[in-house]
Amino acid sequence: MIEIRAYASSSGGNVYRVSDGVTPLLLDCGLPFAELRKRLRFGVFHLGACLVSHEHADHSKAARDLAKAGVDVYASRGTMDALGLSGHRLHVIEARRQFQVGSWTVLPFDTVHDAAEPLGFLLATRAGDKLLYATDTAYLRYRFKRLTHIMVECNYSLDIARANVQTGALNVEVKNRLVRSHFSLENVKEFLRANDLSRVEEIWLLHLSDANSDAERFRREIIEVTGKPVIVAEA
Predict the structure, then answer these.
(1) In angstroms, how far is the first alpha carbon of the chain from the final one?
(2) Pairing with 234, which of 9, 14, 74, 213 sits 20 to 30 Å away (CA)?
């Protein structure tokens, strides 16, 4: 059984805790360390590791301090270099090269974002559950089998973004960056339709845009496409 907890999920910060009942992990650490400790109820030292998807501050802000506190941090070479991180608690990983963290098996994969070397993660438990974590990506080129849990960015809807451009609420350049580097509702639907959802227990929608999303609409439309329980991470 996989337990998921969202502590932050927005452009202001992204932090998620997942556990298989044996090894708790952080997926991204985009809050100041002091705030992260408070939200974790000072349980930082119980973490098995932190997996960092890319170097943008809303995903990596506490990486250095976590390593100083004795938590192993895993990220790509591009992410480590962009953050200027090094040390024995910092572990460089590569896309499509599997590794172990406690009781988890982790397979990183490349994503599409305006970052140095962004990654998503496929995490498997000893019991056979599989969790997909994919954030800050324009699309996913891979297909996944036998997933039980999906945590996926659903940042914006193209029609909302276009309407905001027309009213002047959204700059055209910002809208174009959204399209190039974030997962839209439309692309999330296509991704989910293309994958094996037969064993999926729940789908988490992550990192919704403050101005270019609609949480209840997104949840409803993903339920219509998948027939699965859908949770919008709004922490």
Answers:
(1) 22
(2) 74
Instruction: Compute the C-alpha angle 39/36/24, nearest 5°.
Output: 80
Is pTM, for the whole model, over 0.85?
yes
Strand, coil or helix: 67: helix
Cα dist. 113→42, 86, 124, 163, 181 in Å? 32, 23, 24, 24, 4
The token pair that represents 226 in the structure block: 């998948």
Domains in the chain with CATH codes: 3-232 (3.60.15.10)
Render pLDDT for 7-64 as a digit per residue (tens, 0 to 9): 999 999 999 999 999 999 999 999 999 999 999 987 888 999 999 999 999 999 999 9
CA–CA distance, 160 with 158 (Å, rounded to integer) = 5
